[in-house]
Amino acid sequence: MVYPPVPPLDDRSQLIREHMSLVDIVVQRMVPQVPSFMTRDDMTSAAMEGLIDAANKYDTSKGAKFRTFAEYRIRGAIYDEMRKLDWFSRSLREKHSQLTQTMLRLERKLGRSPEEDEMAEDMDMSLDEYHDLLGKVSHLGCVSLNETLDHSDEGRSFLDSLQEIDGPTPIDLIESREITHLLADILEELTEKERLVIALYYYEELTQKEIAEVIGVTEGRVSQLHSQALIKLRVKLINTELYEEE
Hints:
This protein has about 250 residues and is mainly α. About 65% of the residues lie in helices and about 0% in strands.
């Protein structure tokens, strides 16, 4: 196995020192995206581990900016810590899985993303009950790019699903047209409000309360739209993965 070249120890220490401010920046941006019981200290500690990990694994031969690489590592470390704390109950994890599997099955049957009322009917619940469930599982949508798609240790991750076999890694292509076009195609299949919530939440980094004010719905509805949009995106990636294997 050929390991990528890494910076010497002194250079790695310098990278960490020069990018300490990135830890605070990422933590501040992610505060609205994590459950309330996860403290800022928890996030900062995990973020520091992510920065150190980035410095240790940074491949100088790739030509990618360290700041871009480090930010993904820091975000991933915070999400990983969030999962380690096991904040999501087993019953809600099962319900989230049920939502994903139901949407996956209906999309394959209908040839399109199912409507909310179709999801509710298939899950034998009222529309209000369906909306309530979306709100309850909303935080589970905060996932790192390294989360496996099939919940197994050997499963492929979101990063893997965007990677061509024997081709450049997603980090290499992070600002390329290929990745941009793929994500744009997937986002186009969301509803207008779902796309708007995703854009305001992840690109403009507004809180759910601020998004609610912008699009004129309740904060609870924003949570539901956010949750449903991420489940749809997950289903699209799973379908893309299966299509590529055929």
